[in-house]
UniProtKB/TrEMBL annotation:
One of its GO terms (molecular function) is zinc ion binding. Residues 316-368 form the HNH nuclease domain. Keywords: Endonuclease, Hydrolase, Nuclease. This is Endonuclease.
Length: 407
């Protein structure tokens, strides 16, 4: 181990600026192979530790827990290493390629995620020899792009049951959501072909339904906004199952003074129902078209009084706003009414009345922008106008002698 550390120290001390492009690329390829070999040895060692229950020495019941607690692995990474170690016992050719540095840890996991203990047992029951699969998959892993290996491994399920009932594709569906310290979330999902098609169709319908001029979002941002809008629509529809005696909704808790003080964004002043911290500015945006409940707290932190829940925008006013505006009124946007929030031009926190004349329909994206510097206004002729934070107005292309002119 000391020799290995010495080699790594020497590599870290190399001067890279003097290398040619070819030498740099050769070095990258070599380091990838070395990294694969190190990952293979880690996987082999973790499997050995799991078999002998070495984690019990530190009071833990599994190597997955040990990797998470003692060497700070992410849970998903710990699961991958343990899963790969178990699978490689049945695939010696793949294990050899991994140890030689020609197969990557992710390629091994493609096999491990598909061929678990259950699949191995079914193969034994049916007299299916795993060796040909092992050799074929290893050759593909060494010679072909990553996605080709995925396709090759998927064929294993057909070999297990070529004539029987098709396995339930929903059994492989997974959705994981991880929350970060700033309240943002990262998610990953795995879906079967039909489930994935449904999700893509729903998201694509929202992406394509509204394509305002000047939209500079990436495709990834458009998909993410569409996913949020999809959930927003469903929450607003009120048809979701009841959650703990109430309809599911977004909950935000904030001190009344922080909510009313528009002179500051108030970072971290509000808390959501799932524990995220958001700014007071974001809470004011949510309160623009929501339901507000007043709770008076005592010095000991216990509630003294709970006021009656107040719906900020009643249904009859929303219907009138939708009928008048027809779509999001932010210049250049045509998002439909059922995507929209009813925005108070003068916030109700500062005396603005909840009325048709003090309301405007804005989609989620542009409602956020209006609460962060943009401004909308309805002129005497009934036309909505939009101003940027620097005071300049957003104007669409106007025809001039038959030719378009951007103003």
């Amino acid at each position: 181990m000391s020799e290995l550390r010495s080699v790594l120290d020497a590599l870290a001390g190399d001067e890279l600026h003097g290398l040619s492009d070819g030498e740099v690329l050769e070095r990258v390829a070599l380091l990838v192979a070395v990294g694969n070999r190190v990952a293979a040895e880690l996987t082999r060692t973790v499997r050995h530790a799991e078999v002998r229950q070495a984690a019990e020495r530190d009071g833990l019941k599994s190597m997955r827990s040990w990797l998470i607690e003692h060497v700070r692995f992410a849970p998903a990474e710990a699961s991958r290493v343990v899963r790969s170690g178990r699978a490689l016992e049945h695939f010696p050719a793949m294990a050899a390629g991994f140890a030689d540095g020609e197969v990557t840890a992710e390629q091994v996991d493609v096999v491990a995620r598909t061929v678990g203990p259950g699949e191995v047992a079914r193969a034994e029951e049916q007299g299916i020899d795993l060796a040909p699969f092992d050799e074929a998959w290893t050759a593909v892993a060494v010679e072909s792009p990553h996605d080709v290996l995925k396709t090759a491994v998927q064929a294993f399920e057909a070999a297990l049951d070529p004539d029987g009932v098709e396995p339930d594709p929903t059994e492989g569906r997974r959705l994981t959501i991880a929350r970060h310290t700033d309240g943002s979330v990262t998610g990953r999902f795995d879906l079967d072909a039909v489930g994935g098609e449904k999700v893509q169709a729903a998201i694509e319908s929202i992406v394509q339904a509204s394509r305002p001029k000047g939209d500079d979002r990436t495709r990834g941002q458009q998909n993410a906004d569409a996913l949020v809008q999809l959930c927003d629509n469903q929450l607003a529809a009120g048809t979701l199952p009841t959650l703990r005696t109430v309809k599911p909704h977004v909950v935000v808790t904030i001190d009344a003074d922080d909510l009313a003080d528009t002179s500051t964004t108030g970072p971290g002043a509000a808390a959501t129902g799932f524990g995220a911290r958001i700014s007071a500015a974001r809470a004011r945006w949510l309160a623009c078209d929501g339901t507000v409940s007043r709770i008076v707290m005592g010095p000991d932190g216990l509630p003294l009084d709970v006021g009656r829940t107040h719906r900020v925008v009643p249904a009859h006013i929303r219907r009138a706003v939708e009928q008048r505006d027809g779509h999001c009124v932010f210049t250049g946007c045509t998002a439909p009414t059922h995507w929209g929030d009813v925005h108070h031009l003068v916030h109700w926190l500062h005396g603005g009345e909840t009325s048709l004349t003090n309301s405007a329909l804005l989609c989620e994206r542009h409602h956020t922008k209006v609460h962060h510097g943009f401004r909308i206004e309805r002129d005497p002729g009934g036309r909505w106008r939009t101003w940027r934070p620097d005071g300049t107005e957003i104007l669409l292309a106007q025809p001039l002698l038959g030719a378009p002119l951007l103003v």
